[in-house]
Amino acid sequence: MHSPGDWASMVHLIERVVGEDDLLPSVVNGVRTMVREVAVLPAADVSGHTRALLAAATRAVAARRGPTEAELSFVSELGTARALQGVPIEAVLSAIHVAERAIWSRAREAAAEEGVSAGLLLDARELYDDWSEAVRARLITAHRMTELARALPAANRDAALLRRLLAGGSAAALAAAEAGLTGTDGLWVLLARPGDTLPATAVDRAPSDRAPGDRAPALLALVDGLLTGVLTRAPGSAPVPGGAVAGVAGPAGPEELAAARRLALAALTAAEAAGRTGPVHIADVASLSAVLDRADLSSALADHHRPALAALGSTARAVARAVGTWLETDRDVTAAAAALFVHPNTIRNRVQRFTQVTGIDPHTTFGGVDAWWLCRTWLAQP
Question: What distance in Å separates the CA atoms of residue 201 and residue 186, rounded to the nearest whole number?
Answer without folding.
Answer: 27
